[in-house]
Design goal:
Helices cover 35% and strands 13% of the residues. It is α/β, with parallel strands linked by helices.
């Protein structure tokens, strides 16, 4: 287990490709840049420490796992976590939930968006975003994204109809959306903005934390997020009525919702005015998250240092275009995305994998990536993939070009340098045309 401090070491000189075997791609029998597994959460590369484990064990030994018990709210793990989240984000309310998806659905329902309404969201997002819209009884309307995979505001205006009752903006892969422009457009249209900040916990835009720009912000605490409880999430808001409805909807039944308002009359009359969805967080996860919050600034700094180190080293690689933020530093840094400008991005990603770097092409025909809208059969049924992609031609083109690489906060400086070396190596091979996109892929086997 590492404290992640290696990621804060000064940048190293990037290893150079030496002899012919080093220059030949591993996909063609050369030596890979690295042989150790690329660190990711599903391989155990997580930012969890002994103090975090002890906090979870303490909660287990209490035998009080349900978030509502005999104690006042401010003495429970969930209640304390929510108070700490309010302090961290500077918001009036926070509600711990069972997932980021349920936090999103609760925000939509509690905001009073009528069932059957259309909700606009970007065509590049995780499948949970449209799923949450459907869970809330509404209809997702997909909008194009630009070459940097940000919501295309001009396309949003073109596709606007009176049926759209909210904008669900996504800070996808930890990159901030243009919130000033989005909130201005939403004000013009008279609809609220809800932030899917699920993948961006701790990231900021111009000094303001993502999730605090809209009517409500939803976050995840799944294993690869900035705070890790395996599963979980929370929503934040300054709207007292929305918060109260979300509390009831999440499952604070038989008067338990009143525990959230010890000094005031709740804005909802009874807990039977709304349905009960049981989207609560439990005490064990809350205890783990509270302990992890003590080291959240360190983890965020690791993300940023690793990302800036790698992105700066790849800016001059002519074969790729590294994703650009809407403002300086407006990203988390938990993933590197670049577009392959010449050649086959799917092949580029496979070549990186053979060099020891976990990489995926979003648009790969061999990889049913859940972040690609044309794979969402629950929305499009049996329609032809080509016809689905034609609905958002720009987004489809950009995703077909895009390669995605996870950047764990536990990466060392050596890991980052090997990533840079691998990308440069594959790009150089592409430049030399050692392998054309039209060639057979037998060498991959």
């Amino acid at each position: 287990m590492t404290l992640g401090n290696e990621a804060l070491l000064p940048p190293q000189r990037f290893p150079q490709i030496g002899d012919a075997d080093d220059a030949r791609l591993a996909i063609f029998g050369g030596s890979p840049v690295r042989r150790a597994p690329w660190p990711t959460y599903d391989k155990g590369a997580v930012f969890v420490h002994a103090e975090d484990e002890e906090a979870a064990i303490r909660a287990i030994r209490s035998h009080l796992y349900f978030r509502y018990d005999w104690r006042p709210m401010h003495e429970t793990e969930c209640g304390r976590l929510e108070a700490e989240l309010c302090q961290y984000f500077g918001t009036a309310h926070a509600l711990a939930t069972s997932s980021g998806t349920t936090a999103l659905a609760l925000a939509i329902i509690a905001a009073g968006i009528p069932a059957g309404s259309a909700i606009a969201l970007p065509g590049f997002t995780f499948v949970a975003t449209p799923s949450a819209v459907i869970l809330a009884g509404c209809k997702p309307v997909l909008i194009e994204v630009d070459e940097n995979l940000h919501l295309d505001l001009a396309d949003l205006r073109r596709r606007w109809t009176p049926d759209i009752k909210a904008i669900l903006v996504v800070h996808m892969r930890g990159f901030a959306a243009d919130m000033e422009a989005l909130t201005s457009l939403a004000a013009d249209m008279g609809v609220p903005v809800i932030e899917d900040a699920v993948p961006a916990l701790g990231a900021e835009l111009n000094g303001r934390k993502l999730g605090t720009f809209g009517l409500a912000g939803a976050f995840s605490t799944q294993s690869d997020k900035s705070l890790n409880s395996g599963e979980g999430g929370f929503l934040i808001t300054n709207d007292g009525a929305l918060f109260a409805r979300a509390v009831v909807l999440s499952g604070a039944y038989e008067g338990r919702f009143r525990q959230h308002f010890p000094d005031a009359q709740p804005p909802v009359p009874t807990d039977l005015d709304l349905p009960l969805f049981s989207f609560r967080m439990d005490e064990i996860r809350a205890a783990l998250l509270r302990a992890e919050m003590a080291r959240l600034p360190v983890r965020l700094e690791n993300f940023r240092a690793n990302y800036e180190h790698v992105a700066a080293a790849l800016q001059n690689v002519s074969e790729i275009a590294v994703r650009q933020p809407v403002a300086p530093g407006a990203y988390l840094g938990e993933a590197l995305i670049f577009r392959v400008l010449c050649g086959d991005a799917e092949w580029f990603a496979r070549a990186l994998c053979r060099e020891g770097i976990d990489a995926r092409c979003f648009g790969s025909s061999q990889d049913c990536n859940v972040r690609v809208f044309w794979n969402w059969r629950f929305m499009f049924g049996t329609a032809d993939v080509g016809a689905i992609k034609a609905l958002l031609p720009n987004t489809s083109r950009h995703l077909d070009q895009a390669v995605d690489i996870p950047l764990s906060s536990t990466l060392s400086a050596a890991d980052c340098d090997q990533l840079v070396q691998a990308v440069r190596k594959v790009a150089a091979a592409s430049r030399r045309q050692n392998r054309r996109p039209s060639e057979p892929t037998a060498a991959l086997r």
